[in-house]
UniProtKB/TrEMBL annotation:
It holds the Pfam family Ipi1_N. SUPFAM superfamilies: ARM repeat. InterPro entries: ARM-like, ARM-type_fold, Ipi1_N. PANTHER family: REGULATOR OF MICROTUBULE DYNAMICS PROTEIN, TESTIS-EXPRESSED PROTEIN 10. This is Pre-rRNA-processing protein. Keywords: Nucleus, Ribosome biogenesis, rRNA processing. Component of the RIX1 complex. Component of the RIX1 complex required for processing of ITS2 sequences from 35S pre-rRNA. It is found in: Nucleus. GO terms for cellular component: nucleus; rixosome complex. Belongs to the IPI1/TEX10 family. Residues 1-30 are annotated as: Disordered.
Length: 356
């Protein structure tokens, strides 16, 4: 057969004869049968389902999974399970698994993380503020603006959950304020810098600026205004012996003595009272914060209103500092007068005895 005829034969349409079925292909498999029984060689059926505690541990282990879907589903399960208040869990160990997700690239995972953290019991987080702030400050300075926004939201939760411990822990006050200067772009105010630098500010992002100012307002109020009254409530109203010898309710009660060799003046220093925190703020942060707040207030709008609230806290702090200074001066004058009176009496009595 000639090559041209063989080639044309490939393109010829097969004529089907009436009454005959279409021929089946060579690899055809008949699947029209129905099986009445399915036999499985190995099969294990358990009566008892996994306990809630074992499921909890399983989902905690999945939090480090490479799959975004698995991490998100585990956080959803944990959020529901933690709300039941029937699980046994270690707060430090659980936070070690949860907090790294603050810098997760997936926004849905971060949103689920925030909801899961809000389901945690506040009583068990009071002395873990330093661990929380470590991850929050890292998230606030992340190059991804969405991660920075999530970190600010978690900081707002931490202010409510940890309370005064958030500003009293090591680096809780000084380092967080420095981080705020970086986030809001105020760290270089009044300084002339040369060379390469990275701008981490939220410039142009009104929503995140408002969120940052709201959390900053709450943080400043907690550290310099509310903390003073709360500290006074915590002081025992008892005599010297009971206040000295009783067991303290908080861990590391003598950390102000710096027995462990921490830097007492650096970024990670302890601040045990509102007066000390006010002194740090007024001496090292006040000028930059006031200049930055003034610039945002000029923009008006929602950001301007948030800046006005922050400014009112700064003004209230200055008033508190002035009143505290007046009280200290008054107390010092009274003590000086009292000392002088005692010295005069001692001198007079000694002179009289000498003459006698």
């Amino acid at each position: 057969m000639a090559p041209s005829k063989a080639k044309n034969k490939d393109f010829q349409k097969t004529k089907l004869k009436v009454g005959k079925a279409k021929p089946k292909p060579g690899n055809y498999t008949n699947t029209s049968f129905k099986a009445k029984r399915v036999t499985i060689k190995q099969q294990s059926l358990g009566i008892d389902a996994p306990s809630l505690q074992s499921q909890f541990e399983h989902h905690v282990s999945i939090l480090s999974s490479a799959s975004d879907t698995q991490r998100k589903e585990s956080l959803s399960w944990l959020e529901t399970a933690l709300a039941t208040k029937t699980l046994t869990w270690s707060a430090p160990s659980l936070l070690d698994k949860l907090l790294p997700l603050l810098q997760d690239a997936n926004g849905a995972v971060r949103n689920k993380l925030i909801k899961t953290l809000r389901a945690l019991s506040k009583e068990r987080l009071e002395f873990l503020a330093e661990k929380i702030l470590l991850h929050v400050c890292a998230g606030m300075t992340n190059i991804n603006i969405n991660i920075r926004a999530s970190a600010l939201e978690i900081l707002g939760w931490a202010i409510d959950a940890c309370g005064v411990e958030l500003v009293e822990c090591r680096g809780g006050w000084f380092n967080t304020l420095k981080t705020y200067l970086v986030v809001l772009g105020w760290s270089t105010i009044g300084e002339s810098s040369t060379g390469w630098s990275t701008n981490m500010a939220l410039a142009g992002d009104t929503k995140n600026i408002v969120r940052a100012l709201d959390t900053l307002t709450a943080f400043l109020r907690l550290g310099m205004i509310d903390a003073g009254s709360k500290a006074a409530e915590r002081e025992p109203q008892a005599d010297w012996w009971s206040s000295t010898l009783q067991i303290h309710a908080q861990p590391d009660p003598y950390r102000g003595l710096n027995l462990m060799g921490y830097d007492s003046e650096g970024d990670y220093s302890f601040t045990r009272d509102a007066t000390h925190r006010r002194e740090i703020f007024l001496s090292q942060f006040r000028s930059k914060f006031e200049a930055g707040i003034l610039e945002i207030r000029k923009q008006a709008g929602e950001a301007g209103r948030a800046a006005a609230k922050t400014s009112s806290v700064v003004v209230e702090t200055m008033t508190e500092a002035d009143e505290s200074k007046v009280l200290q001066d008054s107390w010092a004058q009274k003590m000086e007068a009292r000392t002088r009176h005692i010295q005069d009496r001692i001198w007079t009595q000694g002179f009289a005895e000498t003459c006698y």
